[in-house]
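User: Show me a protein chain along with its predicted structure.
Assistant: Here is one chain, sequence first, then structure tokens.
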Amino acid sequence: MRKRNETVEDKSSKEMLLIRAVIDGDKNEFAAIVDRYKDMVYSILFRMVNEHEEANDLAQEVFIKVYRKLQQFKGDAKLSTWIYKIAYFEGLSYLRKHKRWNNSSYQVEVESEENMEKDWAVDALQEHVTECIYALKPMERTAITLFYLDELAVKEVADIMNITESYVKVTVHRAKKKLRQRIKKEYYEEARG
């Protein structure tokens, strides 16, 4: 266990050195931060706004805020959690501004490979689950995707969303229940039709 703690401490020290270098004006180190976290930021924003161009624009805004606020980073949480939190609130701000709290329209591109029937079935299922996730309220959608798809711990999700750990658990549970009911209902309707 001691070895793992040293690894966590080493990573934290490296992050703080990287942050210090950026604060001292090393733009290459900031580019390294952007490169390390750009996919994560884009991913959370795309799940929230469901538009490629908007997610990219918002991701740029997030990294501008990260750069401007980097000296406020205290190291209490992981850098990734801190950046995720900025992305989450940037996405929420966008949704509020554009009054898009329950947007369930989206498009999923289907890619086929060798076995078209199998791929079609898998793609159809993924599309259906994705549609059901997008039908959730933004808070539920974000909590469930951070927890299950991004595999973040409850504490990290709570830190990012600025809610309690117990509220994360309740929100994820509620979202799972809604997903299960919706998928089950639509499956039975399709089977009967």
